[in-house]
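Narrative summary of target 7.
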Amino acid sequence: MTTTYQLTEFDTVIRRKDDVLSGSPWTYIPVDSESADYQKYLSWCASGNTPEPADVPVIKPVSEIFAWQGMLWIVRHGYEDAINFATSTLTGEDAVLARLMMSTANAVWRIDNKMVLMMLDGVLGLTAAQRGDAFIEASQYIFPM
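Modeled conformation, tokenized:
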């Protein structure tokens, strides 16, 4: 399997694999120093490799979605029970913050909202790249009128 990287006009890194049997042959990797995928990209560059310009659809990285878009993504992907269970196990200030966030939040930020990121990454087992894909998908939802 050969893995290469490309760089978009928005400085988003794309990992490409040449032998993907199902799913997409490319994955968006967020520029996030805590991301294992981003660290692998940096190591690849340090080994003397250079990313090519992106040749896939370029979607500007999504850093913010409406809270209802995030909740709809959770429901559509069958994660509602996991989120409800995770929030039910919280106590004290964490429990209060989780209830407030779930009931009154207007927006969710991909970088700043640590509680949301903890839920997406820990409870749902998402990687940083999968979280980025979730934000992109959720941002496409249109409120039904």
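The two ends are 46 Å apart (CA to CA).
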